[in-house]
Amino acid sequence: RKEVEQDPGPFNVPEGATVAFNCTYSNSASQSFFWYRQDCRKEPKLLMSVYSSGNEDGRFTAQLNRASQYISLLIRDSKLSDSATYLCAVSRGSSASKIIFGSGTRLSIRP
Amino acid sequence: NAGVTQTPKFRILKIGQSMTLQCTQDMNHNYMYWYRQDPGMGLKLIYYSVGAGITDKGEVPNGYNVSRSTTEDFPLRLELAAPSQTSVYFCASSYSTSGLSQPQHFGDGTRLSIL
Asked: How far apart are CA A96 and CA A92, in angstroms?
């Protein structure tokens, strides 16, 4: 089993829709969780950090489910500009230093 | 404020050649990382450093070496380039104390082709 797993997608949804995707992690001792957005051929950029149960920033909500070992990302009222690949990143166990990324979920918003 | 700067942005190498990918950050971050990203894939951790003089292997360290002589710089060395090392390389940094990891800041990436 991979340490961090994501559904690769692509998720193809209409503008204005709500979309959610999950990221599962294998190490129950992981403490830090992140969602990054990556545009084609660009560097990842931080979307949201999740340290406790969840976090919300405008149209974006991240939830952490420790019992089932996954984090989710919910995007409401999706915009064309939300089209990107979304990467989740998880600290390896209790180590603050080693961050492992998932393979990413591709999201495409259609007009 | 430049953030994380990587050089070069593009490079083509012949099999067996060596090169160093440069990474420098001006945010006084203690943690630095090197990742590679193959097409359509996520980021794989090559090496990381929690401070000057300290480095450790990540998921895919074979064929690479690093050093961290200063807080600012974290160069990645390829000694004998192989076609399997064709990838996009990202350097990242973060500031973390004990316990929780902090978000990473990424450089623009180096696109490396081995022919």
From this structure: 8
